[in-house]
Write a structure and sequence with these properties.
Layout lengths: L2 H32 L5 H5 L1 H35 L1 H24 L6 H35 L1
Protein name: Sfi1 spindle body domain-containing protein
Length: 147
């Protein structure tokens, strides 16, 4: 082995060490400049907390919106189904019937004033319905005469 070879290998080693050191420095600077995400100091900083809260919130909100959209789509498809419609009609009928029964069963628990009020209210409702019907009839008659 000649002395020049040793010198060259030594230079090469020195050069490698320098490049490594420089790369280390660059890496460190990039961490400091751009705040490396894996750096624990950054995760503890309030900015990171705010950012991550915002990000998680957005993700959660998007998930919720997707879920709601999915539910709405399912509900819409369900509404198109005639069986489901029939079932809903049936349920509504039962509900109305139950309300009617409850209303009429409560009559004998009422005080006289309440009964009186109920009578008056129902009379008013009947009167209003009658008035509406007459009005509709009258308007239809007027329309017929105009033609």
């Amino acid at each position: 082995m000649s002395a020049t070879y040793y010198l060259q290998s030594h230079e090469r080693l020195r050069k490698d060490e320098l490049t490594q050191a420089r790369e280390r420095e660059w890496y460190h600077n990039s961490i400091r400049k751009h705040q490396n995400w894996n750096d624990i100091r950054f995760q503890l900083s309030p900015q990171y907390g705010k950012l991550m809260h915002y990000k998680n919130f957005r993700i959660q909100r998007q998930v919720e919106i997707d879920y709601l959209a999915e539910q709405a789509k399912e509900y819409y498809l369900k509404q198109l189904d005639p069986e489901w419609q029939a079932k809903q009609r049936e349920l509504r009928r039962w509900e109305e019937y139950r309300r009617y029964v409850v209303q009429n069963d409560l009559v004998h628990c009422m005080t006289l004033e309440e009964k009186y009020e109920r009578k008056i209210r129902r009379a008013r409702e009947r009167k209003a319905a009658k008035y509406q019907a007459n009005l509709q009839r009258y308007l239809a008659e007027c329309d017929r005469q105009d033609r």
